[in-house]
Amino acid sequence: MERRGKHSRSGWLLPPCVAMIGYCDGESLGGRERAWNRHQKKFQLDWVMLADAAQIVNGKLYVLGGGWDTLVVSSPFPVNQPCGLAIAFRIPGAGTNPRKTARIQVVDQEGTSTIATADVQFQVGRPPEVDDVLPQRVQLAAGLHLSFPKAGTYVVIVSVDNAEIGRSRFRVVHPQPAGSGERLNA
After folding, report:
1. How far apart are CA 61 and CA 155, in angstroms?
2. How confident is the model at residue 41, as a pLDDT?
3. pTM, rounded to two decimals
4. pLDDT tens-digit series, residues 33-70
5. How far, in Å, are 60, 128, 142 from residue 145 at the CA level?
6. Which of 60, 54, 38 has its CA nearest to residue 104?
7. C-alpha torsion sign, points 45, 47, 50, 53
8. Cα–Cα distance for residue pair 52/68, rounded to 1 Å
9. Alpha carbon of 105 to those of 52, 75, 78: distances in Å?
């Protein structure tokens, strides 16, 4: 069993975050088996991607200008900015079929100002040939028009049925004027 990606103590999702590769049948793992089984019962955020545009067509994610974590704006605040948001998470196999609600929120770092909230209802079916132990991936994409009141750090919070499954942060900054940066002396 190989697992890539981690959650830090602060709860921030650390990229790259492809969190589950394969599955475990639990044979001869002892305590690891119990930990895996507990882990399997939870939703697991694979990734959050900010982009210029994102959409899902026939189960495939299409992204234009994606993967950024810093938005450089040249106009004065508040700034209105269109952007795309793509999210993937895994739903436990036993949790498929019932209707669920994903909530995506964009808030300032302090959590005092909500920039955007989107609720998306979804239902994931499980094909008959797929074992109900295996998690199913859910991908969501949205085009958003965000209004940032100030420069700073913002957070995308992803929840499913009112339970937070992960966070990702990004920055909004003004460009530095030419010549205002530090010079490196060689």
Report:
1. 22
2. 57
3. 0.71
4. 444 344 445 888 999 999 999 999 998 999 999 999 99
5. 23, 39, 10
6. 54
7. negative
8. 9
9. 18, 24, 19
